[in-house]
Amino acid sequence: MPNLLLYNGHGIRREDAESWQVLFEYSPPALATFPPTMEDEEAQRLVCMNIDLAQIESPPAKLELTVDEVLEEYVGSFGFSQLLHVFLVSFAWIFDSQNALITIFTDAQPSAWRCKSPGSCIGAAGGGGGDGGGAASVCGLERGTWEWVGGNTSSVIAEWGLICDRKFLAAVPASLFFLGSLLGSAVFGHLADARLGRKRSVLIACVLTTLTGFLTSLSPDVWTYAFLRFANGFARSGIGICCLVLSTEAVGRKWRGQVGQYGFFFFTAGFFSLPLIAYQTRNCWRDLYRIISIFPLLYCFLLVPFVSESPRWLLVKGREGEALDVLRKFARLNGKKLPSNLVLSNPSPPKMVGKAEAGAGSMAAEAEESLWKTRWAAQRMILIMLAGFGIGFVYYGIQLNVENLDFNLYFTVALNAMMEIPAVLLGSVLLGIMNRRLLFSQSAFLAGISCILCVIFARENRGGRDADKSGGSGRGSWAQLIIEGVGFMAASMAFDVSYIYCVELFPTNVRNFAVSLLRQAVMLGASLAPLLVAVGRLRPSLSFLVFGSLSIFSGVLSLWLPETRNAPLYETLKQQEEEESLSCASDDSGFELAKEGRS
Question: What is the pTM of this model?
Answer without folding.
Answer: 0.71
